[in-house]
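thread: overnight batch results

M.L. [08:02]
morning all. the overnight job finished for the chain we discussed friday. pasting input first so we're all looking at the same thing
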Amino acid sequence: MLNFSTPVSEKYSYNNFSMKEKAQIAKINLRGDLENKDFVNKIRNIIGMMLPKESCNVSEKKKITSLWLGPNEWLIVSNDEILKEKDAYELEQILFDGISKINLGAVTNVTDQFTIFSLSGSNIIEVLSKGCPFDFESNNFVDNKVIQTVLNHVDVTIHRKNKNNIDLYVRRSFAGYLWDWLKDSANLTSS
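M.L. [08:03]
and the structure it wrote out:
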């Protein structure tokens, strides 16, 4: 069941940095073995694309994005908002029936566990760098890459869509805290 309760009820913009929550986005954790041809073929048939095989990579098509989280773990994310009237995400059931039920892997709906902050503007990296040990200027952190790191003591997943557009995944229980920290950090950036 999808939960659309939101820990953040505002949008924020200051000094070339803006953020808003993407509240109605379905998220599915997928685990499996890329060495298993049955798993690979089944996933390709269900989602219509190959899962990213290399660290920090992303696969995309019109309706979904697949983020590499580990050698046998991906986050499948809806690119479209899900209507509040629905209490299920169709792809979750299809993946569960095609993967989990026949023991090819594990499918877990994590929509309720994570929220997404959509960050935009030319000061994103400066704001994030104030509380994160990751080197955002690294040649490895280019467009359409994903990393897992810590931001002001909170575990996060960061998907860089392009230079001025980042999706930040955070556990709902830390969302309010991290939202406030991001606002404070943005207020302390130079213009």
